[in-house]
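Protocol step 4 of 6: structure prediction from sequence.
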Amino acid sequence: MSVTGTGPTAVPRSALADTLLERLTDVYAAAADPERAVGMRAYMKDVGPFLGVATPERRALSRAVTAGTPRPDEADLTALALGCWRLPEREYRYFAVDYLRRHVGRCSSGFLPVVRHLIRTDSWWDTVDLLAAHVVGPLVAADPALTADMDAWIADDDLWIARAALLHQLRYEERTDTARLFAYCLRRSGHPDFFVRKAIGWALREYAKTDPDAVRDFLAHERGRFAPLTVREALKNIPA
């Protein structure tokens, strides 16, 4: 694969990515179901076209695609992800997200701009949420200097970048930076969009599994700043 463009969206040369993309397009296309694709596209609010491959089948096909291939390095992951994102159907992006989740530990902090590009391109919750929790989160955990990037993301005008910042600690449990989590929630408490309000509630609800008292106390003082949707979501699993 030759280099295309410059900056974080440049595609590096990667024989592994070439192999995976060739296998992937052959295998997925052969399993396409146009009738199912119509329903999948409608469910995802017409964010993009689908092949019509259901999740269990897609994951089985993905295992066949990656069988016998070596572990990727960061250049391979960049080339594979960007290559998948340039294909129209969402299933290719789901493959890339799953592959990144599996191998994110092989990426440096320099991979974050690539993930940002993925989040901002044809954005919807189906890719953004998994990238936030399972790719951005591990990158920040491995390099705390990236918290400065998260501090910038939470203020971003792009609601999906802000949502990713809110959700990046979703899997941290006791490692959660509670002060930063609460500050991010307050920072975007007045956001008008459903997906940001929902993300605030989700982030708080998830952290409540680790420290319900902290979330309860936080909302006891600040709930007036949040939409009812956010509060309901945050308190969903906390006993009254």
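Step 5 (inspection) to follow. The mean pLDDT is 95.
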